[in-house]
Amino acid sequence: MSGKHLLEVKDIRVVFPGKKGEFAAVDGVTFHLDQGEILCIVGESGSGKTMTGLSVLGLLPEQARVAAGTVRYQGRELLGLSEQEMYGIRGKEISMIFQDPMVSLDQVFTVGSQLVEAIRVHTKMDKRSAVELSLEMLDKVRIPNPERVFGSYPFELSGGMCQRVMIAIALCCHPKVLIADEPTTALDATVQAQILELLVELRDATHIGIILITHDLDIVKGMADRIIVMYAGKMMEMGTRQDVFSNPLHPYTQGLLKCVPTLDMPEGFRLYNIEGIVPDIQDMPEGCRFCTRCPRAEEECCIVQPELREIAPGHFVSCLKVDEVSEVKAGWAQ
Amino acid sequence: MARFFAKRTLTAIIQVLIVTTIVFFALKMMPGDPVLLMLSRDGSSVDPAAYEALAKQLGLDKPILRQYRNWLTGLFTGDLGMSYTERRPVMDAIGDRLPRTLELAGASLLIAVVIGIPLGIAAAVKRGSWVDLLLTGISSLGQSVPVYVFGYILVLIFALNMRLLPSSGYVPIHRNPVEHFRRLILPACTIAFGFSASMLRMTRSSMLEALSSEFVRPLYARGLSKARVHMKHMVRNMLIPVVTIIGLQLGALIAGTVLCEAVFNWPGIATLLVKAISNRDYPLIQGCMLILSIIFIVTNMVVDLLYGLLDPRAR
Ligand SMILES: Nc1ncnc2c1ncn2[C@@H]1O[C@H](COP(=O)(O)OP(=O)(O)O)[C@@H](O)[C@H]1O
Ligand SMILES: [Mg+2]
After folding, report:
1. Does the predicted interface ipTM exceed a cut of 0.85?
2. Is residue B63 predicted with pLDDT exceeding 80?
3. Strand partners, A18
4. Is B20 part of any domain?
5. Are residues B287 and B179 in the same domain?
6. pTM of the full structure
7. Which residue of B lies nearest to A175 if distances are taken between CA atoms?
8. One domain, residues B71 and B114
9. Which domain holds residue B64?
10. Which residues pair with A10 in a beta bridge?
11. Does residue B172 sit within a domain?
12. Comparing C-alpha atoms, which of A234, A286, A232, A231 is closest to residue A254?
């Protein structure tokens, strides 16, 4: 990772005040994003995906603090910037859309006025051109009858429509990065597919880089270029879609992949479940955070923190046993 | 909107009728006889012939339902009858007094809004700071001190001690506008103190609620500044509940005006009503109650309309 990437996040650590001093909700997350790329962050809920996304935009909850790490956008460090300077980044260079579109818009302003506002805080555009651009954006996100939606209030629209509006607002100033935090989790399956299709389409048209946060492996399988697997605030594995789906190296990733139901699965087939539960985030094991549930954990796993190692070009794994594990995996594949 | 308005007007008329009907019969059950009170102020004995004559003149000799019907017919022809004690039409007496009460209530409301809402916003935005503690502290004081106590404190300080303002009284505006407003300041501030305190608290809590809503972070994610998020989006969302609660508190405002008129000798409709009650001046009492309930109901209607304008979801 040499500084030529669009966005580079390095060793990010997000801490919250807890019962026994601070605890890390995100620890050592490192990745980069290039133009036109879709990077998926997957993990169970509570694994720190949202906090990772928010730390990039400097929008963490009040109690949270970035304790370490760097976030570079086009080579420029974002973490030290003042609020004032971040206003020029958010929405203009890096945008974000959220999990529940129905509550992510201000309910007492029309869709149009919120779009026009978002355009005019970043450009010197006069009102009329901003209205025109807004209508164009609504059309771009495939909203039928943009004029009507322009004058509507968010509560008059469906969830899918609201998410389209959120996307229109997020993209109206042509940012280079879009962080999409579970953008379809709150939507029906059919609408979900349409929104994801729209994101891919927009990526193809504008070469925007997308960080897609999700807990749904089906989505990842369908559209990711690269994948980060997170568990309890830590990165377990990172690699191309090919790497992760065809050659998963981390025992956690392997466990996750076994959970995905497939169509050709025989009836009554019991889904593979990872044994145990996620440990309390405020009381993590000293070593690997997955060691309490790992089928392959040995004594040293619970003592020594594994580092994120590049096993093959672009394929990173954080597991002490990774070489053994990859052999075992070969056995599973049969 | 038009249908909503028509419906509200109809309910308002029914409400006014119910209120005045209750007042009418309650008055008749009240001990005390206006004829006796008019003929002998000192309680000496009264000539029965004079009594009968006066009762007949006032229409009090008729059966009670008949009296009620007469009053209702009067109401629909715009005639509220003659006041026994003022010796002129009730309409004229009210016409003199009502604007003064409205002026006092309006001035208090204005002061309370201008002080309470901005300070409430400041307290919410700086939640937990000394500014917040100071403001909420003063406002709980403001809510617990009764109008007459605070009124006398103001008189003590600004009229008797510093001699800045007259302690009470009223001067018509066309005679001397400066003196008119000098006499308005203390009573208006007296009512406004408690009212702005409760306004501050309402504003603070609805502002805090707005600030904790889900769409705040998405607003920042668009690149909006803190000032814009607070002053445009949060304030607009905050105003919706605040306007409703102001509407609900208008009754308290009118009650405050009643006490305040007494303390500052402000000749408004409340002092007129108090005098009318002690004299059992039935038509005047009826007229005042009618006007007060109309004011009350109309202001509530206006608040509802305002609410519809502010909150698109309520349209
Ligand atoms: N407001 C908060 N206060 C305290 N802890 C929080 C807060 N928000 C998130 N966390 C902690 O951060 C962890 C990661 O949260 P999050 O990033 O939202 O997970 P995800 O998006 O993967 O579901 C949570 O498990 C929780 O412990
Ligand atoms: Mg999340």
Report:
1. yes
2. yes
3. A21
4. no
5. yes
6. 0.86
7. B222
8. no
9. 34-79
10. A70
11. yes
12. A231
- Whether residue B58 is found in the same domain as residue B107: no
Instruction: Return the beta strands (E) in chain A as ranges.
Output: 7-18, 21-33, 38-42, 65-73, 76-77, 94-97, 177-181, 209-214, 226-231, 234-240, 309-312, 315-317
Report yes or no on B26 lying in a domain: no
Q: Give the pLDDT band of residue B309 (cuts 50, 70, 90).
A: confident
Cα dihedral A82, A88, A89, A95 sign: positive
In this structure, the answer to whether residues B107 and B166 fall within a common structural domain is yes
One domain, residues B57 and B127: no
Range ranked top by mean pLDDT from B37-41, B140-144, B298-302? B140-144
Mean pLDDT score across all residues of chain B: 90
Q: Which atom of ligand 1 is nearest to the CA of A182?
A: 21
Q: Calculate how far, in angstroms, residue A145's C-alpha sits from the geometric centre of ligand 2.
A: 32
- Considering the domain architecture, whether residues B113 and B248 belong to the same structural domain is answered as yes
Is residue B220's pLDDT more than 60? yes
Cβ contacts (< 8 Å) between A92 and chain B: which residues? 223
Kindly give, in sequence order, each residue whose CB lies less than 8 Å from that of residue B295, ignoring residues fewer than 6 positions away.
B102, B254
Domain total of chain B? 2
In a domain, B232, yes or no: yes
Structure-model confidence comparison of residues A195 and B40, the more confident one:
A195
Average pLDDT for A214-222: 91
- Clarify whether residues B140 and B179 are in a common domain: yes
Residue from A47, A65, A181 to probe ligand 1 pocket by mutation (most atoms less than 8 Å from CB): A47
Separation CA A253–CA A258 (nearest Å): 9
Nearest Cα to Cα of residue A36 among A168, A139, A178: A178
